[in-house]
Each structure stands twice: as structure tokens, then as C-alpha cells.
Amino acid sequence: MQWINAIRENFKLRPLWMNALLLFCAFMAFFYVPWDFFFKPLAVDEEVWFGFLLRGWAAKLTEPLHWLIYLAGSIGLWKMKPWVFPWASLYSLQVAIGMFVWNYLDERGSGLLGSTLIALPFLLLAAALWKSRPAPTLAPPASQD
To answer: Going by C-beta distance under 8 Å and a sequence separation of 6 or more, which residues neighbour residue 63?
Structure first.
């Protein structure tokens, strides 16, 4: 069970909420998006980008972008790569805006207050990711001998 210990040690690298985000990205990258892409019928396929709902072929053709985003999030968070924090923060901000716009414009939506409440967790996630980004490391200046 050495691999279980390796996973436990890796999960100690980040706070609980970030581990939850890692697990979500991994679930989406390795289970949900592949199922959605390969097995969900075209007639019911839907994707939301920037708050606008895409259906059918438009949805199916943009699914690989979601797949790449979640795969990059999984790898970046697993390896704690510095690049993951600004990009995950910006993606979360885009999701917040998209959730607000989609909920506000869709006939099933819940108006201005409901749209704001739905967007709020993603805004908080974007802020937490931005705040968590590691400070850039500066190499010592090269000697001028």
C-alpha cells in the first residue's frame, strides 16, 4: 500500500479546500468529461461558456476544452505547479461570471439575487486561489566577474 502513503503525503502539501478542488478536477478530467464526450447523446449535450449555453454539436466540439482545463488543473494541483494558481483563479472568475450570466439570462434562472448568490462561491474560490499563489522566486544575480 505504498501508493496510498504517497497520496497521503501529497495531500499534506495543500489545504483541505485545495485538495477538494484537486479531487473535483480529477473527477471531471478522468470520469465525467470523458463520459460526457463519448457516451452522452448529442441531442442532450450541453456546455456553458461565459454564461452562454451551447447545445448539440457546439457543445460536443467545445467539450475537449473543458477536458484540457480539468486535466491541467489536476496535474497542476497534484504537482503544486506555480502556474496553476493564476490560471485556476482566472478560470474560477470566468465560471463565476458565467454562472451569473447563465442563471440571470436562462428562463430557469432565479433573477439578480439568485444569480449573485450562485456566482459568489466561485468568486470566493477565485480569490482564494489568487491569494494562494506562490510568490515568484528570484534567482540571485549572476556575478559580473
So the answer is: 33, 36, 37, 45, 47
d(CA 91, CA 143): 40
CB 49 within 8 A of CB 97: no
Q: What is the pLDDT of residues 33-42, one digit of tens each?
A: 999 999 999 9
pLDDT at 99 over 70: yes
Asked whether 39 and 54 are in contact (CB, 8 A), the reply is: no
Alpha helices in the chain, H assignment, sequence order? 2-11, 16-27, 33-38, 57-78, 84-105, 111-132
On whether the CB atoms of residues 114 and 3 are closer than 8 A, the answer is no
Task: Judge contact between 115 and 109, C-beta under 8 A.
Answer: yes
Region for residue 73 given its phi and psi (left: phi exceeds 0; alpha: psi -120 to 50; beta: otherwise): alpha
Q: CA dist 132 to 11, 48, 139, Å?
A: 16, 27, 21
40: buried, middle or exposed (CB in 10 Å: 19+, 13-18, 0-12)? middle
The pTM assigned to this predicted structure is 0.84
